[in-house]
Specification:
It is a single chain. A hairpin with a 3-residue loop joins β9 and β10. The strands form two sheets. Strands 3, 4, 5, 6, 7, 8, 9, 10 and 11 form a nine-stranded antiparallel β-sheet that branches. A two-stranded antiparallel sheet has the order 1-2. The N terminus is likely disordered. It is built from three helices and eleven strands, in the order αβββββββαββββα. About 25% of the residues lie in helices and about 40% in strands. It has about 160 residues and is α+β, with helices and mostly antiparallel strands.
C-alpha cells in the first residue's frame, strides 16, 4: 500500500512540475511546421521582402479570434514552392480593445519580455511576437516571427 501511495505522490509532483509546451504559432500556423502547401483558402501572391528575398504573401485567410474580436490573417512564406516555410504571421484586429488583445496574448504566451507605450514583445524558444496596441486608432496589429528572422525582428523593434 505504501508503494502505491508513493507512486501516486510521485506522479502528482511530476504533474505539478511539468510545464505546458511553449506555443510555436497560432491556430494552424506553426513555425517550423507550416508550409505554403497548407494554404487552401485565401489568396497568395509573390512578393519581395525588405531584404530582397523572394516570398509569398497570403491574405484573406480564415480569420482568428483574438479575445472577442475577429482578426484578419496575413501569412508570409519564404519562397514560392509548396515547401516554403512560414516566416511571419500577422493578425490585424479591427475594433480592437487593447486590454482584450493584451489578455489574449498573455494567456497564450505569458507576460511580455518588454513593454513600451503602445507595444509589447514576447519571446519563447520558437517565436518572437510584437503586439502594437493600438497600431492605429481602433486597430491592433500582432506580428509573429520565428527566431531565425533576426534581421526582421530588429527592423520591427526600430520602427
Amino acid at each position: 500500500m505504501r508503494r502505491v501511495a508513493s507512486i501516486v505522490v510521485g506522479l502528482a509532483i511530476a504533474a505539478c512540475n511539468s510545464k505546458q509546451p511553449e506555443p510555436a504559432g497560432v491556430g494552424p500556423y506553426v513555425f517550423g511546421r507550416s508550409t505554403l502547401a497548407g494554404i487552401h483558402d485565401g489568396v497568395c501572391q509573390p512578393t519581395d521582402l525588405d531584404d530582397g528575398r523572394k516570398a509569398t504573401w497570403c491574405f484573406t485567410l480564415p480569420p482568428i479570434k483574438v479575445g472577442k474580436r475577429i482578426a484578419e490573417v496575413d501569412a508570409y512564406y519564404l519562397g514560392s514552392e509548396k515547401t516554403a516555410p512560414l516566416i511571419e504571421l500577422q493578425l490585424k484586429v479591427r475594433g480592437c480593445v487593447e486590454d482584450e488583445a493584451d489578455r489574449w496574448m498573455r494567456e497564450r504566451f505569458g507576460p511580455p519580455i518588454e513593454t513600451k507605450s503602445t507595444r509589447e514583445y514576447w519571446k519563447n524558444s520558437f517565436l518572437w511576437a510584437a503586439a502594437f496596441l493600438p497600431s492605429e486608432p481602433g486597430r491592433c496589429l500582432i506580428r509573429f516571427l520565428p527566431l531565425s528572422e533576426n534581421a526582421e525582428i530588429e527592423r520591427i523593434k526600430q520602427k
